[in-house]
Amino acid sequence: MANRKNTAGEIQQAIKLGPITRQYQADPKRIIQALNDLRSTEITSYLQYMQHQYMAVSLLSPGLKAEFEAHAAQELDHANRLADRVQQLGGVPIFDPKEIASKAASVGISPEQGATLAEMVTEDLLLERQQIEVYSALIREIDDQDLVTRQVLLGILTETEKHASELADYLKRTADQ
Fold it and tell me: Where are the alpha helices (DSSP H) in 22-116?
């Protein structure tokens, strides 16, 4: 690369666009919107897991309370990773509770409160499966247009599939008893 001085306009453009270069092929506004939608589902999932953690008082499954709490912490971490990426792309992570609830509900995710441990685990499993579908669709849509967002989403998808597997395993074990 030849040594040349950047113009004031080029410097201002670099400041304005941050990590978005000519090689970035996605629509940043669309990606920011999708990430905020996903972030809303993660916050909703966090709230549901915490509610289930508070309500899981059975002596039959003492580890389940801790499992709900661990899953809640991971959901909050997912929300934070998505917020970081929204900010990197020049967007603003949404924080308004009404907007979060609305966006989560728009993809079919709303907090549930089952009466039994099995119902709580089933609700969490169904929620994780919905998220798997939404993440998978966005990853396919992004393809190679936004490699960093794709990598963030793949990491979260991996953890979400693990949650679904753990929840399904719990339900299988309890059904066999």
Answer: 28-55, 62-88, 97-106
